[in-house]
Amino acid sequence: MNMEFYRKLPIPKEIKEQYPVTEEMARVKASNDEEIRKVFAGESEKFILVIGPCSADREDAVIDYIHRLRVVQDKVSDKIIIIPRIYTNKPRTTGAGYKGMLHQPDPNEKPDMLKGVVAIRQLHMRALAETGFGCADEMLYPENYRYLSDLLSYVAVGARSVENQNHRLTSSGLDIPVGMKNPTSGDLSVMMNAIYAAQHGHTFIYRGWEVASKGNLYTHAILRGSVNKHGQSMPNYHYEDLIRLFELYCASELKNPAVIIDTNHSNSGKQYLEQIRISKDVMHTRRCSADLRKMVKGLMIESYIEDGCQKITDTPVYGKSITDPCIGWEKTEKLIFEIAEGL
Question: Would the pTM count as exceeding 0.85?
Answer without folding.
Answer: yes
